[in-house]
Amino acid sequence: MRIGFALPNAGAVATPEVVSKVARRAEELGYDSLWTFERVLYAVKPQNPYPGAADGKWPESFRRMLDPLDTLTFAAAQTKKIFLGTSVLDIPYYNPVMLARRLTTIDYLSNGRLRVGLGLGWSQDEMEATGADMKKRGAMADEFLQVLKAVWTQNPVEFHGQFYKLPLSYIDLKPVQKPHPPIYLAAFAPAALQRLAKLTEGWNPTFIPAAGMAQMFSSIQQMAKAAGRDASRLELVVRANLHVTDKPLGNDRAIFTGTMGQIQEDTDACKQIGAHEVHFDPGFEPGQASLDGWLQRMEEVRKLV
Question: How far apart are CA 251 and CA 274, in angstroms?
Answer without folding.
Answer: 23
